[in-house]
Structure formats: structure tokens, C-alpha cells
């Protein structure tokens, strides 16, 4: 029998599964160790960053923001640029949409949610029916193993654990449609797009695969399946063939120990777990291991009352309460503040997300090169649009690595967008009035810029690599080279190194 302390630690370690030695992609939803984040929201749910100096975050309204209920129009600043700038590429990472819990609360009935899709159920979407029938032709697409055996639609009248719900599908149909409109006038993808121009990758979970497909359908309705290849990422970090990094795992373990130490000092939280366990008639550690916040969030997001158990003879019985829920959420928000202060998670995040960022940077460079004046385009084109369908344990470290530590924890169907822009060519010579040189005018290729958006809001100037850029001077956008030098070298200063390899394999000191 392991001690309670050891049992908790063990639970953390096995349930995170960020250590990619086995191809498991399980997220530990909405628990402090996976969260970067959001000291909060203050009053405004639209803002990605909390308003400074506002009052204490309200854990309940913050939780509603996490649900991301698709019942209002959303602001989307994607596709905005100075006139005449050309959009060269867009790379998107999404978190899957609303899903059924991954854990159930002992002794209680699981929330009753129907995971089949139907336009007669809310929330619905004008594209829902055509999406369902289009998915029925999915066998025409190309699927990297093992994706071909993953269902392409949620379809259980009683949701399975972790299954995408109709809400989740609608969230991503909306995301895709939003970006469709944002980029329409930029002609990002030609109508006869080639297989290479559209790059789609997902983890092997049905909720990420289905979320990616819903997004894609909103973005390119009735897309040609035969041109689509869906690629598989076995690690939730999207680290491809560069997953091996011993130092990353050490930072994660240290971060988990910090999280554990921080949690046990919270007497209100401990008392809340004891009360909840008594209500249910289970051991406190049994309840804790069942990660009740995950299931309670699902109740909240679906407007279901919290679970109850009948009165028993040992003092058990009654319902779990909103007040208890608020205590757990409050502690999670406090944990985020402590996490930022200690900086361990940031170090983990830098190493965790380098492979993804490096690939993102490389794709941008390739597209930029292909756009150079006078260049013969490669047959089949470049990856002008890429979609990575991921988890909170992917999006949270990505935000942290970019220096967006104040950003709110990735809600359901969160999206991070990287845009690559090119300014118009400049004709030199006419401007210079010097005799002799001014006669022959020479055209200088435009310059390259990057924009980063989180949930539709432009956060470029909050990132580490562009925070100090003076956007009011000559350049209204952030130069791509800032991002490239950040990814290729500068980001490793956080872990006192100059390269991924050095940081990963240095002996612990
Ligand atoms: C959308 O749903 C949320 C959560 O159920 C609710 O708080 C909010 O008032 C709703 N907004 C609108 C515009 O209906
Ligand atoms: C969902 O499952 C039912 C029963 O297994 C089946 O008849 C139906 O065709 C499925 N629908 C879709 C869209 O896959
Ligand atoms: C980073 O990208 C470059 C290509 O630009 C590649 O040569 C290198 O192997 C990548 N490094 C890692 C660790 O993935
Ligand atoms: C950073 O790395 C350098 C060289 O590897 C080492 O000399 C120095 O002590 C390190 N600094 C810290 C704070 O770890």
C-alpha cells in the first residue's frame, strides 16, 4: 500500500503522460499541472488577457468562459493587416471542442448527454447536416495509421468517456467558418489546392480527429476528400521525431512536485475534498483521484445540476455544490499564479514546444522563399495552410513558450493562429533623388512579418519575441526574423542554453 502522498504523486505522473516514451495521448483536463494561465478574467469574457488591477477572478464566470458555449457572435481579428500586404501562410493549432468527461465521480450517475449529431438539438449549425453526410465519404481521404480506424463522427446516444459532443462539433464548424470569412479576400488557398498546400495533423483520439474535421469543413465546405491526407501525431506535444528530451521530463517532474506542495498548503481545498467525499460516502483520496472538477465542469457547461447521492446511514448523502466547485476552481487559479512565479513550467514548455515551433518556423521560411520575386514555384506548392488538432496539454505549453503566460487557460475549441505576411515590393531609385543612381529604378522584394492570435485576439505584441518591438514606428507588424531568432536560439536562454540539444542533454547540475 503506497502512502497517500506517494499515491497522489503517482497519480500526477501517470495521468499526465507528457513523457513520450509510450504512445499514449491522455490529457489531464483542466487540472493545475496542465494549465498555464489565466489569472483571470475579470469582468470581460472576451479578453484573452485579464484587465490589470481588476478584482479577484470569479471562479464561476471564469469556468463559463472555459465552456465556450457557442451562443454569441465572436470577434475575430484574423486576416487583418495594413493594405497591400499579402498573406502567405496560416498555421493553426486548435484544442478539441467540448467533450464528455474523462473521469466519473464515484457513486454518482454519469451526466446524461447524447453524443449523436442532430439538427433538432441545440446548439446546432447550418452546416451540421452537410457535415455529417460529407464525413460519410471519409474513406476517400488518406489517413496515416492508425487514424483510419478512428470514428469520424461522434455517434453514441450515451456519450463515451472523452467523446466529442455536438457542442464540440459546432464550436469547430464555427471556428472554421470564422477563418473562412477572415481569409476569403486574401485568396490563401486556391480553389484547386494541391495536397501539399493543406497540411492536417491530429493526435489519435476521436475528439481531436473529429474536431479537426469539423474545423476543416467550416473552413473549406465540401472539400475534396481525395486531396486530403490526415497525419498522425502520437505525442500530445506534436514533437514528431524530436520528442526525446530528458531535461524536459525533469522540469515536468519538478513542476508536479511544486504543484503538489502548493496544493497541500490549501486548507480550504483539503476541507472541501473531505466534505465532498463524506457526501458521496467514499474515501477522500478516492474522490481526489477521480478528478471531480472534470465532471463538474461538464455539468456546468451543459447546464446540468451537480450530482447527488441518496442519504446513507454513515452521514453520506446530498448533492455536490457550486460552492465546492468554486473552491476547487479558485485553487486552480491560485496555482496558475504560483506556477508563473516559480517558472518551472515555462522551462518545461520551452523544451516541450520547440519541435512544433521549429517546424512552424521552417514552413514559414519555405513559403517565404517560394514567394521571392522571380522564383519558380515548386510543383504542388508549399504548405500555405496547416492545422494541428490538439489538447490542452499542447496549447497550454505553446502559450507559455511564446511568453503568453498571462493568457487564459485554453478553453474548449481554443485556437492559436500564426500568420505570415509580406509587405508590398518597394521600388527603389525613384525615392532616392541622387543623380545617376535614381535613373535605374530597382524593385526590392517586400519584407516578412508574423502575427500571432489567440482566440481571435491579436497577441503578437505580448509574445516574448515582439514585446519590445515599437510597432508605432516604421513597422506596424512584427518582423518574421524576431520569431525565427527566438525559435532558433533566443528561447533557450530561459533554460540557460543556446540550443535544444544542449538544453535537453545537459547533465543535471
Ligand atoms: C451563453 O451561454 C452562457 C452559458 O450557459 C450563458 O451564461 C450566457 O448568458 C449565454 N449568452 C447568450 C447571449 O445567450
Ligand atoms: C451512427 O450509429 C448508428 C447505429 O450504430 C448507425 O445506424 C448510423 O449510421 C451512424 N451514423 C453515422 C453518421 O455514422
Ligand atoms: C529544426 O528545423 C531545421 C530545419 O529548419 C531542421 O534541420 C532541424 O533538424 C530541426 N530541429 C529539430 C530538433 O527538430
Ligand atoms: C549557464 O550555463 C553556463 C555554461 O554552460 C554555466 O557556466 C553557468 O553556470 C550556467 N548558469 C546557470 C545560472 O545555471
UniProtKB/TrEMBL annotation:
Pfam families documented for this protein: His_Phos_2
Protein name: 2-phosphoxylose phosphatase 1
Gene symbol of the encoding locus: PXYLP1
Family: Belongs to the histidine acid phosphatase family.
Residues spanning the signal sequence: 1-18
Record-linked CDD domains: HP_HAP_like
GO biological process: chondroitin sulfate proteoglycan biosynthetic process; glycosaminoglycan biosynthetic process
GO CC term (a single one): Golgi apparatus
One of the record's GO molecular function terms: phosphatase activity
Key words, A-Z: Hydrolase, Signal
Source organism of the structure: Amphiprion ocellaris (Clown anemonefish)
Amino acid at each position: 500500500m503506497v502512502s497517500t502522498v506517494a499515491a497522489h504523486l503517482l497519480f500526477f505522473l501517470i495521468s499526465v503522460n507528457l513523457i513520450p516514451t509510450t504512445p499514449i495521448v491522455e490529457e489531464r483536463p483542466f487540472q493545475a499541472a496542465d494549465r498555464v494561465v489565466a489569472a483571470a478574467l475579470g469582468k470581460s469574457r472576451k479578453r484573452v488577457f485579464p484587465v490589470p488591477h481588476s478584482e479577484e477572478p470569479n471562479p464561476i464566470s471564469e469556468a463559463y468562459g472555459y465552456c465556450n458555449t457557442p451562443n454569441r457572435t465572436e470577434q475575430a481579428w484574423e486576416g487583418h493587416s495594413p493594405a497591400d500586404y499579402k498573406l502567405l501562410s496560416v498555421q493553426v493549432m486548435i484544442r478539441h471542442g467540448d467533450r464528455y468527461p474523462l473521469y466519473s465521480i464515484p457513486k454518482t450517475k454519469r451526466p446524461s448527454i447524447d453524443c449523436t449529431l442532430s439538427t433538432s438539438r441545440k446548439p446546432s449549425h447550418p452546416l451540421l447536416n452537410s457535415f455529417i453526410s460529407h464525413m460519410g465519404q471519409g474513406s476517400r481521404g488518406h489517413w496515416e495509421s492508425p487514424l483510419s480506424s478512428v470514428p469520424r463522427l461522434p455517434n453514441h446516444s450515451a456519450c463515451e468517456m472523452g467523446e466529442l459532443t455536438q457542442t464540440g462539433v459546432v464550436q469547430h464548424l464555427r471556428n472554421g467558418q470564422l477563418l473562412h470569412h477572415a481569409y476569403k479576400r486574401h485568396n490563401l488557398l486556391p480553389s484547386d489546392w494541391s495536397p501539399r498546400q493543406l497540411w492536417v495533423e491530429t493526435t489519435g483520439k476521436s475528439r481531436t480527429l473529429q474536431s479537426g474535421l469539423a474545423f476543416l469543413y467550416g473552413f473549406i465546405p465540401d472539400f475534396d476528400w481525395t486531396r486530403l491526407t490526415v497525419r498522425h501525431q502520437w505525442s500530445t506535444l506534436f514533437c514528431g521525431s524530436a520528442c526525446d528530451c530528458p531535461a524536459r521530463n525533469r522540469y515536468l517532474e519538478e513542476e508536479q512536485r511544486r504543484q503538489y506542495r502548493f496544493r497541500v498548503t490549501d486548507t480550504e481545498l483539503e476541507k472541501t475534498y473531505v466534505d465532498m467525499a463524506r457526501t458521496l460516502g467514499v474515501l477522500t483520496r478516492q474522490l481526489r483521484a477521480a478528478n471531480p472538477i472534470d465532471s463538474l465542469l461538464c455539468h456546468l457547461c451543459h447546464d446540468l445540476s451537480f450530482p447527488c447521492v441518496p442519504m446513507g446511514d454513515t452521514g453520506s448523502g446530498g448533492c455536490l455544490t457550486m460552492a465546492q466547485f468554486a473552491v476547487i476552481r479558485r485553487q486552480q487559479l491560485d496555482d496558475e499564479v504560483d506556477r508563473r512565479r516559480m517558472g518551472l513550467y515555462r522551462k518545461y514548455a520551452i523544451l516541450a514546444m520547440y519541435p512544433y515551433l521549429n517546424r512552424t518556423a521552417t514552413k514559414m521560411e519555405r513559403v517565404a522563399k517560394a514567394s521571392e520575386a522571380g522564383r519558380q514555384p515548386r510543383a504542388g506548392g508549399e504548405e500555405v495552410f496547416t492545422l494541428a488538432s490538439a489538447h490542452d496539454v499542447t496549447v497550454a505549453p505553446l502559450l507559455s513558450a511564446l511568453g503568453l503566460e498571462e493568457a487564459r487557460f485554453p478553453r474548449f475549441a481554443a485556437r492559436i493562429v500564426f500568420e505570415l505576411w509580406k509587405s508590398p515590393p518597394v521600388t527603389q531609385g525613384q525615392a532616392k533623388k541622387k543623380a545617376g543612381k535614381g535613373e535605374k529604378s530597382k524593385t526590392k522584394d517586400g519584407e516578412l512579418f508574423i502575427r500571432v492570435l489567440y482566440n481571435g485576439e491579436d497577441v503578437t505584441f505580448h509574445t516574448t519575441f515582439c514585446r519590445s518591438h515599437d510597432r508605432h514606428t516604421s513597422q506596424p507588424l512584427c518582423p518574421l526574423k524576431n520569431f525565427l531568432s527566438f525559435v532558433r536560439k533566443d528561447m533557450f536562454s530561459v533554460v540557460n542554453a543556446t540550443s535544444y540539444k544542449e538544453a535537453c542533454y545537459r547533465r543535471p547540475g
